[in-house]
């Protein structure tokens, strides 16, 4: 019958460790991710065509050098009065200086006549000749003197409570280039754009940056039992949970995702759908779900084994059966990650296998978050398998949280996964795990 399994032409009989499989994924992902192109995008959406602007989390494709210093000029850190230390250093705690003018922010720096002071606002350029700013709080009348100055005549500013520390040259002056010097690298190649980096680039007057294009991921959920929302389930049908689940995870990895549902177990149907999607989406990564284990109608395995994709097993549960490889297509070369069909197996595999492999290759992919927990009840686990159990976390003040299992280990229990806060990791050597045992957990 069509789609009935023959022995896969490319299979690996052994069961390998989680770490070995992560390394296998790295090997297929690395060349595919290396083919990513550069996009030249504006920092400000208003200056380009709206949503085409760069966003935080993107990865730079080239170094950016500061074309200007930051601060751009010597300026005041305080609202106050700029003066010359040597004019007043011998005058004691209180003294007066005639006011020579005022400098708001955004104006040119005036000259400071000897023996005078100039009112200055935060961020305004330091008058040439001045070497200190005394905050307005240390004067008798504050900025009321500016009104008096406008009315004409010489206006004295009375400084009070002045100590030696107030008259150290450079006090409250932000020097040009003290934050960033001209020629300094403000963004490295392959660095993640954070909000602060974007602010820094903008402060340097940079309008556009080169970023790596996002990883384009094609997700294909397979199985003749699959239905879309609204379709009648019929006998043996079920709604596709995997495509939306995998899409959401991959979007969290920073990918641009196209999903497809292939409700067939016929290899030719899968192949035809794949060809169309390759041309349309030019993926760097293809993730399939279902059709890879020991059944008689393993559509993904049949279709991809003959194209060199390998299938094997990893000593973890859920997520034991796995496929990995490369696929050449008109737009380039894609890595293939074939996941088992059970939704929890997909979710766990993405977290324990694909994320660690991607993190080592793509600075935009957030790392796994691990914590220590105390196991909340007696558990058992098969020897030689790293078992991931869905758990709720109970916090205790200043103590390690308790991981309380939600349901059993089976990989169809999606409702339980959706309630879980973490995946408790039971080790390969664990068989009986008494309550209170300390183990690691991966936060979801
Ligand atoms: N004889 C053996 N049987 C199985 C083995 C084995 O080693 N020997 N491994 C089991 C394990 S572990 C897993 S995991 C599954 C993986 O099987 P497949 O990758 O071939 O997945 P399917 O058979 O297509 O589906 C498994 C299960 O998941 C449901 N499913 C599939 N796709 C979706 C979807 N998009 N949304 C919701 N649910 C989906 C499907 O209906 C099946 O119930 O194999 C075991 N069997
Ligand atoms: O490996 Mo399967 O993913 O346990 O159910």
From TrEMBL:
Residues 218-360 form the MoaB/Mog domain. The keyword Magnesium applies. Its cofactor is Mg(2+). GO terms for cellular component: cytosol. InterPro entries: MoaB/Mog-like_dom_sf, MoaB/Mog_dom, MoeA-like, MoeA_C_domain_IV, MoeA_C_domain_IV_sf, MoeA_linker/N, MoeA_linker/N_sf. Keywords: Magnesium, Metal-binding, Molybdenum, Molybdenum cofactor biosynthesis, Transferase. GO terms for molecular function: metal ion binding; molybdopterin molybdotransferase activity. One of its GO terms (biological process) is Mo-molybdopterin cofactor biosynthetic process. Its EC number is 2.10.1.1. Signal peptide: none annotated. Residues 31-52 are annotated as: Disordered. It catalyses: adenylyl-molybdopterin + molybdate = Mo-molybdopterin + AMP + H(+). It is an enzyme of class 2 (transferase). Pathway: Cofactor biosynthesis; molybdopterin biosynthesis. Belongs to the MoeA family. Catalyzes the insertion of molybdate into adenylated molybdopterin with the concomitant release of AMP. This is Molybdopterin molybdenumtransferase. It comes from Nesterenkonia natronophila. The lineage of its organism: Bacteria, Bacillati, Actinomycetota, Actinomycetes, Micrococcales.
């Amino acid at each position: 019958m069509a789609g009935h399994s023959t022995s896969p032409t490319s299979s690996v009989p052994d069961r390998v460790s989680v770490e070995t499989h992560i390394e296998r994924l790295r090997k297929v992902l690395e060349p595919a991710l290396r083919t990513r192109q550069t996009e030249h995008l504006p920092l400000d959406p208003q200056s380009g065509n709206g949503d085409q602007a760069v966003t935080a989390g993107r990865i730079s494709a080239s170094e950016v050098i500061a074309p200007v210093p930051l601060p751009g000029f010597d300026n005041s850190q305080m609202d106050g009065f700029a003066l010359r230390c040597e004019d007043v250093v011998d005058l004691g705690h209180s003294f007066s200086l005639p006011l020579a003018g005022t400098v708001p922010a955004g104006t040119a720096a005036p000259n400071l006549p000897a023996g005078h002071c100039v009112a200055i606002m935060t961020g305004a350029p330091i008058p040439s000749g001045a070497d200190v700013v005394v905050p307005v709080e240390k004067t008798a009348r504050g900025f009321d003197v500016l009104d008096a100055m406008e009315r004409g005549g010489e206006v004295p500013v009375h400084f009070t409570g002045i100590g030696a520390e107030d008259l150290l040259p450079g006090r409250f002056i932000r020097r040009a280039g003290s934050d960033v010097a001209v020629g300094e690298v403000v963004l490295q190649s392959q660095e993640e754009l954070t909000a602060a980096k974007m602010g820094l680039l903008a402060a340097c007057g940079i309008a556009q940056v080169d970023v790596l294009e996002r990883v384009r991921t094609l997700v294909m959920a397979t199985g003749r039992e699959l239905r879309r929302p609204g379709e009648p389930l019929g006998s043996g049908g079920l709604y596709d949970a995997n495509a939306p689940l995998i899409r959401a995870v991959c979007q969290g990895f920073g990918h641009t995702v196209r999903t497809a549902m292939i409700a067939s177990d016929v290899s030719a149907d899968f192949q035809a759908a794949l060809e169309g999607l390759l041309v349309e989406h030019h993926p760097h990564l293809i993730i399939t779900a279902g059709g890879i284990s020991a059944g008689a109608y393993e559509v993904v395995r049949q279709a991809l084994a003959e194209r060199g994709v390998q299938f094997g097993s990893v000593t973890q549960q859920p997520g034991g059966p796995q496929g990995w490889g490369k696929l050449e297509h008109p737009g380039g070369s894609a890595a293939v990650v074939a996941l088992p069909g059970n939704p929890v197996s997909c979710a766990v595999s993405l977290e324990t296998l694909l994320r660690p492999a991607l993190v080592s290759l793509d600075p935009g992919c957030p790392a796994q978050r691990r914590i220590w927990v105390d196991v909340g009840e007696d558990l058992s686990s098969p020897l030689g398998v790293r078992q991931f159990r869905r758990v709720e976390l109970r916090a205790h003040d200043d103590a390690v949280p308790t991981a309380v299992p939600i349901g059993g280990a089976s990989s169809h229990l999606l409702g339980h996964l959706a309630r879980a806060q973490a995946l408790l990791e039971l080790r390969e050597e664990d068989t009986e795990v008494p309550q209170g045992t300390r183990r690691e957990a991966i936060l979801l």
